[in-house]
Amino acid sequence: MHVLWGCLIVAAGLFMLVCGRRKSDFVVYRLMAVRSKILWGENVHRFYQIVGVIVQFSSNAIAPPFAVTGRSRDSLDIESWNLFLSGIRKTGGLIFR
User: Fold this and answer.
1) Residue 28's domain spans which residues?
2) 51 and 7, same domain (yes or no)
3) Are residues 46 and 90 in the same domain?
4) For residue 58, what pLDDT band results from cuts at 50, 70 and 90?
5) Same domain for 55 and 68?
6) Which string of DSSP letters, residue by residue, matches 49-82?
7) Is the same domain home to 40 and 56?
């Protein structure tokens, strides 16, 4: 289930990145951009490009422990967390799959 949410968050980040890059006229993006333009002014598209990248990478905070072990949340135990944390220590950061 968490992998599903991770994928949906990556899709939302990709949506913001692509729409911000193309300055899209898609209805959902236009609604978001108009609301954000109050605060960000003419930099609203750059804002959505940056936020899109941040959202994509932050989705790894939801999915990695489950992606590393291949187990569901119900069967997650201390061994799984130790495996996950050892992967972080070895790579010096989050594990991206």
Assistant:
1) 1-62
2) yes
3) no
4) confident
5) no
6) HHHHHHHHHHGGGTSHHHHHH---GGG--HHHHH
7) yes
What confidence tens digit (pLDDT) does each residue in 3-40 have? 777 788 889 999 999 999 999 999 999 999 999 999 99
Please state the length of the chain.
97
Which backbone phi and psi does 76 adopt, to 5 degrees? -75, 130
Report the first-to-last Cα separation within the chain, whole angstroms. 16
**Residue appearing with tokens 């990709």:** 14
pLDDT digits (tens, 9 = 90+) for 65-76: 555 555 555 455
Number of folded domains that form the chain: 2
Give the count of beta carbons closer than 10 Å to the beta carbon of residue 25. Answer: 9
